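We modelled the chain as a single entity of 122 amino acids. Its sequence is:
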Amino acid sequence: MYAEAALTFLEVHVGTPIEKCREINARLLADKENDGGYVEEDFENLIFRYEEPNGMSRWDSPLFTVLDEDETPPFEKIWEAIVGSDGKAKVVRPNQATVLVRTNFLYHIYPYRLPLTSYFHA
């Protein structure tokens, strides 16, 4: 649907070690002024189920992985992936997986209407 709307997207994955994530979650839970963090059992469950994005997958592409301590993320490459090097919006070409096909449902079921209605009225 994003191609039909002519939207460009990308994924930026911030690679953070699990121990640092646990520290951040514990800090958020300890902060009584703000609502944040997950209960420890839920947080561990999220870590267990987490799947890192894969740049080879269509839905995770283009993928930029930035380490959490990286002070200079690849801003220019990210910008180019969204806008392109010429500064114009990239053209998103629709394909069969991204185009919403509108069909007339009633037209397709019309031949079956009499057998169905006679079945239910019998």
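As a brief sanity check on the tokenised model: Helices lie at 18-30, 40-49, 75-83, 105-109, 113-121. Residues 23 and 29 are 10 Å apart (CA to CA).
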